[in-house]
Write a structure and sequence with these properties.
Elements: H1 3-9, E1 15-26, E2 36-52, E3 58-62, E4 69-71, H2 80-94, E5 102-108, H3 118-134, H4 140-155, H5 162-169, E6 174-179, E7 185-189, E8 194-200, H6 208-226, H7 245-264, H8 270-286, H9 293-304, E9 308-313, E10 321-327, H10 331-343, E11 350-353
Parallel strand pairs: 3-5
Antiparallel strand pairs: 1-2, 2-5, 2-6, 3-4, 6-7, 8-10, 8-11, 9-10
Bound molecules: alpha-D-galactopyranose (GLA).
Length: about 350
């Protein structure tokens, strides 16, 4: 049963699928450098439902769009939100599938624009739904690859593959250790007795797209100057000597962050894992320069709170959310005092994970 779908389109959907957002625990800005990442899925999901409509146009309904959007596969929709769905339809068509005009409904409780991969959730859920409806063979890795391609070609962000792999393959109880070069992966238990807390800083990620593409270009330039295919190839910090200061700091973040991910999966205590998260934040702030004063403040408040093992900004940065590793029995008590102290600086944050009921 999908009452929204039925009341909008006058009949039940022929396929339905869902996919989660993700929060990255460690390994930030490493994926487009062929490095290592450690995301975990969040409970919030995006749901997509579809049916063939027998018409000449596609109709897309989503709360985010305000009203229905219609388009054909030859004419790209103007609405940014719709371009993710459109991108997936086009890519499936390019894979050789016949894609007939569809009625499509999207519903999501993945927070948007805070660094929890609402766009990857939308892409993966759309592709899963198309896979089911059109009976096409796509494994979960291929789904992630097409989703990433949709993001790059149709939403204009030159992202890595972490978000889409996490949405397609991760679950909420174990982290996904992913080598983004080989796509080798394994699931890793969270440190004993710990739980994940995610707070939104309330600061919009205004520079995210431009700053993101700029960082990526800087990494490519650093790799080019060192004569390596990607920053993943750098084996010693000494290799970075001689790079212009800014590029050296960008590359140093990537090098140390990869090392932190690999160290984290062998951590035997949540304290040790938390220290790596704290170090990651410092590196993102000082070397990679993707933090903001508000994120630094919220992270510092989290780090000082009893029951918190470590905290950092998560996602691309420039605003958005912070993630903390907390003692499992303290996770429900951490957010309130932290958000209260954060409010005193004039900012309004909110808890995103665990989802408040
Ligand atoms: C965004 C991108 C990812 C990744 C992170 C930063 O979420 O979509 O590919 O690069 O930023 O780690």
């Amino acid at each position: 049963m999908n009452p929204d779908f039925e009341s909008l389109f006058g009949g039940p959907p022929q396929a339905q699928a869902q996919a989660p957002g993700r929060v990255n625990l460690l390994g930030e800005h490493t994926d487009y450098n062929d490095g290592f990442v450690l995301p975990v899925a969040i409970p919030q999901q995006t749901r997509v439902a579809m049916r063939r409509n027998g018409k000449s146009e596609f109709t897309l309904h989503a709360a985010e769009l305000g009203s229905a959007v219609t388009f054909t596969l030859d004419g790209r929709p103007n609405e940014h939100f719709a371009s993710y769905v459109y991108g997936c339809l086009r890519l499936v068509q390019q894979e050789g599938a016949q894609v007939p005009p569809l009625d499509i409904h999207v519903a999501s409780d993945v927070p948007m624009g805070v660094g929890l991969s609402s766009s990857a959730a939308l892409e993966v859920a759309t592709l899963r739904c198309l896979r089911q409806l059109l009976n096409i063979e796509l494994d979960d890795v291929r789904v992630a690859q097409l989703a990433q391609q949709a993001e790059i070609e149709y939403a204009g962000v030159r992202c890595g593959i972490m978000d889409q792999m996490a949405s397609s393959l991760a679950d909420t109880t174990r982290a996904l250790l992913l080598d983004t070069r080989s796509l080798e992966r394994r699931s890793v238990a969270l440190p004993q007795g710990s739980a994940v807390l995610v707070l939104d800083s309330g600061v919009a990620r205004s520079l995210a797209a431009s700053g993101y593409n700029e960082r990526r270009a800087e990494c490519e330039e650093a790799a080019r100057l060192m004569g390596v295919a990607s920053l993943r190839e750098v084996e010693h910090l000494e290799r970075l000597e001689g790079l212009p200061d800014k590029l050296m700091r960008r590359a140093r973040h990537v090098f140390t962050e990869n090392a932190r991910v690999l160290k984290a999966v062998d951590c035997t205590t949540p304290q040790a894992f938390g220290e790596l998260m704290n170090a990651s934040h410092a590196s993102l702030r000082d070397d990679y320069e993707v933090s903001t004063p508000e994120l630094d403040h919220l992270v510092a408040l989290l780090q000082a709170q009893p029951g918190v093992f470590g905290a950092r900004l998560t996602g691309a940065g420039f605003g958005g959310a912070c993630v903390a590793l907390c003692a499992r029995d303290a996770v429900d008590q951490v957010a309130a005092p932290v958000l209260e102290a954060y409010r005193k600086s004039g900012q309004q944050g909110r808890q995103l994970v665990p989802a408040e009921r």
